[in-house]
Amino acid sequence: MKKITIGEAARRSGVKVPTIRYYESIGLLAEPERSEGNQRSYEPSHLHRLAFIRHARELGFEVEAIRTLLALQDDPNQSCASADAIAKARLIEVEQRIRSLTALRTELEVMVEGCGHGRVDRCRVIEVLADHGQCMHPHH
């Protein structure tokens, strides 16, 4: 594949142009060579790295975790224990978020079910929002 412009790299990778520039500025993506007109010229390796970063971001990995994962990818002969630890930590975060969202859903269901669809002065939704002490789950 011949070298491509940043716009084409963005189109092919699904990563926006400003985000590509940002990844370059923070060192997640190596700056590409420049053409005689000073335009960036991307190679397939850049597109593979952008796809990796995009997928990791979609899974919710933070930039520093991605940086570590990229370093591991760049040296494939090392142990994958660090990658496993990063993925396990992310899984714990997701499980905690699921518990929190489940509690939130339950709270909202109780609020909606308790609503008499009458007047605001007897509205359960307004009561609970006005007094956090009435919530079933204090940490939602």
From TrEMBL:
InterPro entries: DNA-bd_dom_put_sf, MerR-type_HTH_dom, MerR_fam, Tscrpt_reg_MerR_DNA-bd. It comes from the Bacteria. Residues 3-72 form the HTH merR-type domain. Coiled coil: none annotated. Keywords: DNA-binding, Transcription, Transcription regulation. Pfam families: MerR, MerR-DNA-bind. PANTHER family: HTH-TYPE TRANSCRIPTIONAL REGULATOR ZNTR (PTHR30204:SF92), REDOX-CYCLING DRUG-SENSING TRANSCRIPTIONAL ACTIVATOR SOXR (PTHR30204). This is Helix-turn-helix domain-containing protein. The lineage of its organism: Bacteria, Pseudomonadati, Pseudomonadota, Alphaproteobacteria, Hyphomicrobiales.
